[in-house]
Amino acid sequence: MQTTLEILTHPLLDPVRHGFFTRRGGASSGLFSGLNCGYGSSDQGEIVTINRARVAEAMGVPPGGLATVHQVHSPDIAVLRAGEEPADFAKIRADGIVTDRPGVALAVLTADCQPILLADPEAGVIGAVHAGWRGALSGVIEAAVGAMNDLGASRIRAVIGPTISQRAYEVGEDFMDAFLAEDPDYHRFFSGGPNGRPMFDLPGFGLMRLREAGVEAEWTGHCTYSDPERFFSYRRSTHQNEADYGRLISAIAL
């Protein structure tokens, strides 16, 4: 079993420690083979704990120093302040965390949705966001930027990690209508697909929302659906009639 973690980084976030972890290097097996970090999956809890401990070690924090929230596709952001313990955030229903506290790693879990890591290195403020289409449309990105600004950030940079790309993201007409009802200009994030249905550009939409919020932003360019050796994908597992799927983790720390 491969035990070496594969961690994708981006120079835009340097010198802040960060990583978009692929599925390589974990202790899980079967459908979850590799680095499954989702307690919400049907994987063995103790194995997920081992995987998360490996992530924490790679991020330079103790196992209890990895902060995640109970993700619900919302626009809500949690703030980790001095004196609060990362473990206490596991039950908070939100889709992102921001902090100005050193020594902890903020992390989000994804399996096609966008993992977004944000940082203002000069101000010493970081954030991690889970942005699926619902969260992105309802304002989770702007909420994270606002929460970081409240902590003193002013020049935020962000990177979108591995997520489902437009060529793999077929949606329904009602899905597209929800976006066009918000702003008719959002039609530019949809194209015609091979089955005559719209194809949605999730990372393109995320980049637009980040940049309109005043954030310098890039996407790593990795498609979760298209690379089963490296990434878990909810949609791919559904298309293959699999019973469950693993969750990728992305993390950032001061």
3D architecture notes:
The structure is a single chain. The chain is globular. With 254 residues, the chain is α+β, with helices and mostly antiparallel strands. 48% of the residues are buried. The model has no long low-confidence stretch (mean pLDDT 96). Helices cover 23% and strands 22% of the residues. The chain has a six-stranded mixed beta sheet with strand order 4-5-8-7-9-12. Strands 1-2-13-6-3 form a five-stranded mixed beta sheet. Strands 10-11 form a two-stranded antiparallel ribbon. A hairpin with a 4-residue loop joins strand 7 (114-120) and strand 8. It has one domain (7-165, 201-253): CNF1/YfiH-like putative cysteine hydrolases (4-Layer Sandwich).
List keywords for this structure.
254 residues; 6 helices; alpha+beta; six-stranded mixed β-sheet; five-stranded mixed β-sheet
Per-chain topology:
Layout: E1 7-8, E2 17-21, H1 45-59, E3 66-67, E4 78-80, E5 96-99, E6 105-110, E7 114-120, E8 125-131, H2 133-138, H3 140-150, E9 157-160, H4 173-182, E10 190-192, E11 198-200, H5 202-212, E12 216-219, H6 234-239, E13 248-253
Parallel strand pairs: 3-6, 4-5, 9-12
Antiparallel strand pairs: 1-2, 2-13, 5-8, 6-13, 7-8, 7-9, 10-11
CATH class: Alpha Beta
Strand content: 15-25%
Number of individual domains: 1
CA-based shape: globular
| Low-confidence runs of at least 5 consecutive residues | none
CATH superfamily: CNF1/YfiH-like putative cysteine hydrolases
**What CATH architecture would you give?**
4-Layer Sandwich
Radius of gyration: 17 Å
Could you state the order of secondary-structure elements as H and E? EEHEEEEEEHHEHEEHEHE
Q: How are the strands of the largest sheet arranged?
A: 4-5-8-7-9-12
The CATH topology annotation reads as: CNF1/YfiH-like putative cysteine hydrolases
- How many beta-strand runs? 13
Mean pLDDT over all positions = 96
Distance between the termini: 31 Å
Number of helices: 6
Q: Percent range for helical residues?
A: 10-25%
Structural class by sheet pairing and helices: alpha+beta
For the biggest sheet, the summary is: 6 strands, mixed
